[in-house]
Amino acid sequence: MTPAPSAIVVGAGPAGRALTHRLAQRNVAVTLVDSHPQRMWRATYACWTDELPAWVPSDVVAQQLDAVRICCPHPRDIPRSYAVLDTAALRQALTDPQVEIVAGRAVVLGDNAIRVDDGTVLRAGTVIDARGTAGHGPRQTAWGIVVPRPVAAPILDGADAILMDWRPAAPELTGSPSFLYAVPLDAERVLLEETCLAGAPALSPSALRDRLTRRLACAAIDPDDVLASERVSFGLTGIDARPWRHRPLLYGARAGLMHPATGYSVAASLAAADDVAAAVSSGRQPAAALWPRPARAIARLRSVGLRALLEMDTAEIADFFDNFFSLPVAVQRDYLSERRHLGSVLAAMVRIYRGGDRRQRLALMRALI
């Protein structure tokens, strides 16, 4: 008799919990291992609404916006729905009572076993490592504050949200480029965050805090208006340039599901969870389900975008995004969200290249070479 499918998922962030949820829904006996499995998620998660899979309940969306604004430097509204997620509701939605939870630091022993730091060895038909990104390579960093909506109103200037404001925080600032990200977290609060999109090395959160202070000086925000702060720092690449070859299987940002030119990974991890769970439950290779040939090629192409961004100064990167967001929304979607259709991503990259000026084209060519 063929044994019932079983799996161990290491890492209890959004990617790990999404995967355990979908595995449990397919009657896979699944164990979730994490050093602090009950730790609450404090980061702000957002995505394009059309990236969310149908199985994710609608109440995990705290704010759904019909459009977002970018300033590169002139304002432009992008008519693509954007969702800011309720992290507590998302975590609850991804928690399945059928999943066994083990608290402990895991050492992966192979495709079928891990050892927890108390010495216990756990075995399963499949081990999947979803512990997030490593601490080396290009990073995205940010510093943000949460303020009441009325306080943020002058910054938003009539926009529902500002995805990127590339106007410099102060004309004389040097170093890696940064932009303002301003999104409502709910009906009462707004996050204002200075973000270094990609840096090697990246700007420190403390440097970004100083830039945010200078950017918001004109708004005269009273310290008593600040409800909370947020510090962000994470790697933009997975731990293996060819995650489809890694044993055991990697998942989430650790596997390179993060878009390396934007830092977005949660929606991609939610969307891919069903494919991996279906493969595990049916005895097929989950790596093949997660990484068909087009997805491998797209991952390589997107690394070109990251390398190009790392070469650009503030003016060049603002011009790049002004060019990008002038493209039709369908083309933007193909580059930012598509993982399965190589032709669509290639066509989008050609449009980006053709629309760029000489400096942008040279940066893209150097990155490609």
Commentary on this structure:
It is a single chain. The protein has about 375 residues and is α/β, with parallel strands linked by helices. It has three domains: about 5-40 and about 90-130 and about 235-290, FAD/NAD(P)-binding domain; about 140-235, Alpha-Beta Plaits (2-Layer Sandwich); about 295-369, no CATH class. Helix content is about 35%, strand content about 25%. The protein is built from eleven helices and 18 strands. It has helices at about 15-25, 85-95, 150-155, 205-215, 265-280, 285-290, 295-310, 315-325, 330-335, 340-355, 360-369; strands spanning about 5-10, 30-35, 45-50, 60-65, 70, 75-80, 80-85, 100-105, 105-110, 115, 120-125, 125-130, 140-150, 160-165, 180-185, 190-200, 230-235, 250. The protein has a seven-stranded mixed beta sheet. A five-stranded parallel beta sheet has the order 8-2-1-12-18, covered by helices on one side. Strands 3-7-4 form a three-stranded antiparallel beta sheet. Strand 1 (about 5-10), helix 1 (about 15-25) and strand 2 form a beta-alpha-beta unit. Helix 1 packs parallel to helix 5 (about 265-280), helix 7 (about 295-310) packs across helix 11 and helix 9 (about 330-335) crosses helix 10 (about 340-355). The chain is globular, with a radius of gyration of 21 Å. About 45% of the residues are buried.
